[in-house]
């Protein structure tokens, strides 16, 4: 079976796709982990044989529906889990309209749910296609489990002192302007399917700027009342790090970075601080101390009472925040072992499904094997792939040259639009991760991991 795993934001999705790839490859399947362009052009032009396509969403935009129709005609089967997840809200009904439709679910061979909430909502809303919807859980959640804590490689920028991790989802330094985001919503027909979103977009943006000020103010006070630990500020994957360096300029003992996946930062921090961030759920699953900062100035906003803000140590004033952070640091300093609680809060269990006996990734692979039914037996041709990549590089070179020569006719930024989301792959680091996963999962089979292009790898049995 050929499996094609689409990665949009590498820091968010790459490692969960690696987990899927390794487990599938160990069972004899041939797996490509890649940006969307390589997968689509390879399948649609015949350079890659049909297989299982695992994409990051089923948003019912016109271009995506047409694209999936073409893939299906050529023998590829569409499967998906929504990587946006919508874990931070109490209700899933609006999300089920924004991110799915009868058409996109009909096109799919399997739709995977993060947990009870999205699974039951989707089955109820799309009742005719309910047999295609599975409650598997997410491979990303698999990697949040304590058993994978040794998997994560420490980033180069990690402080030597104990550090507090602050996770940002404020989007005040978004790589796209607010009008660009609105236009994106119009083109993808989000506002047409869910008109309330247009109003909410303005509310969220105003709240983001207010929250940014509140957090900058809190960070300054945390630094002024401490010289024993450091702070790592983690921007959202879609944010510009340099923008945050300006907003937080001059604050000592503060590191601003989006290096690597957030999992490794969570596992090495003595505590995680947030407001309304999905990282809160990951922190709880990882059994790390969580501090939820909900000052009164932010209380009236629609997002304030959502799931993440109901978790961990909830503090409402800067004084209480400083006291709680110091308390958690002192416990770390004294090598105090925090009590591990394997029982997840009911609110979290509603959102994410964890089967102690089987990984979500294993469940998904079993469903792929079931729907594949040995139909896609043509193997991936290595020589054909390299020729395909070579031709794509020539086309890109010509395209970039035309953009330089005729800037008024070509968008000079077009070739760079995905680079902030998916950094080039370091194959040496990826192979280290593959070996770590093999050991943790006790996979005896030797695996071959090769770089196909700067954002594409292939994993299969040796």
How would you describe what is shown here?
The chain has 462 residues and is α/β, with parallel strands linked by helices. The protein folds into two domains: 253 residues, Rossmann fold (3-Layer(aba) Sandwich), CATH 3.40.50; 198 residues, 3-Layer(aba) Sandwich (Rossmann fold), CATH 3.40.50.2000. Helix content is 44%, strand content 14%. It contains 18 helices and 14 strands. The two termini are 16 Å apart.
Radius of gyration: 22 Å
The total of helices stands at 18
Low-confidence stretches: 412-419
Strands of the widest sheet, in order across it, are 6-5-4-3-1-2-14-13
- Give a quick account of the main beta sheet: strands, pairing sense, barrel closure: 8 strands, mixed
CA-based shape: globular
């Amino acid at each position: 079976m050929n499996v094609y795993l689409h990665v949009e934001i590498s820091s968010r999705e790459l490692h969960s796709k690696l987990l899927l790839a390794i487990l599938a490859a160990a069972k004899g399947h041939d797996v490509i982990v890649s940006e969307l362009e390589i997968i689509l052009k390879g399948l649609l032009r015949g350079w890659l044989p049909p297989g299982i396509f695992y994409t990051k969403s089923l948003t019912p935009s016109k271009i995506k529906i047409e694209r999936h129709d073409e893939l299906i005609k050529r023998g590829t089967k569409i499967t998906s889990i929504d990587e946006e997840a919508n874990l931070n809200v109490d209700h899933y009904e609006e999300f089920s309209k924004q991110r799915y439709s009868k058409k996109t679910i009909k096109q799919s061979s399997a739709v995977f749910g993060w947990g009870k909430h999205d699974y039951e909502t989707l089955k109820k809303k799309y009742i005719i296609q309910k047999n295609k919807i599975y409650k598997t859980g997410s491979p990303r959640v698999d990697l949040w489990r304590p058993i994978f804590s040794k998997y994560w490689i420490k980033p180069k920028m990690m402080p030597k002192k104990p550090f507090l991790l602050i996770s940002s989802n404020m989007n005040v330094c978004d790589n796209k302007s607010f009008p660009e985001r609105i236009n994106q919503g119009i083109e993808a027909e989000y506002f047409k399917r869910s008109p309330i979103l247009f109003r909410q977009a303005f509310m969220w943006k105003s709240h983001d700027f207010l929250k940014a000020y509140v957090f900058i103010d809190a960070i300054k006070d945390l630094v002024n009342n401490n010289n024993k630990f450091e702070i790592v500020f983690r921007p959202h994957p879609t944010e510009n790090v340099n923008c945050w360096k300006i907003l937080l300029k001059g604050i000592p003992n503060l590191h601003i970075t989006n290096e690597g996946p957030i999992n490794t930062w969570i596992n090495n921090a003595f505590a995680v601080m947030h407001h309304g961030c999905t990282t809160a759920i990951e922190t709880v699953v990882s059994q790390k101390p969580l501090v939820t900062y909900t000052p009164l100035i932010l209380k009236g906003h629609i997002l304030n009472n959502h799931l993440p803000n109901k978790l961990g140590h909830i503090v409402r004033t800067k004084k209480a925040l400083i006291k709680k952070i110091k308390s958690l640091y002192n416990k770390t300093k004294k090598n105090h072992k925090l009590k591990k609680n394997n029982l997840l809060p009911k609110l979290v269990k509603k959102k994410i499904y964890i089967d102690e006996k089987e990984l979500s990734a294993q469940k998904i692979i079993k469903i792929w094997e079931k729907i594949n039914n040995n139909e896609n037996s043509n193997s991936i041709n290595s020589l054909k792939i390299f020729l395909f990549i070579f031709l794509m590089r020539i086309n890109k070179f010509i395209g970039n040259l035309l953009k330089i020569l005729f800037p008024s006719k070509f968008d000079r930024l077009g070739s760079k639009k995905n680079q902030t989301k998916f950094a080039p792959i370091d194959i040496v680091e990826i192979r280290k991760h593959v070996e770590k996963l093999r050991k943790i999962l006790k996979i005896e089979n030797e695996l071959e991991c090769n770089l196909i292009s700067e954002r594409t790898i292939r994993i299969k049995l040796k």
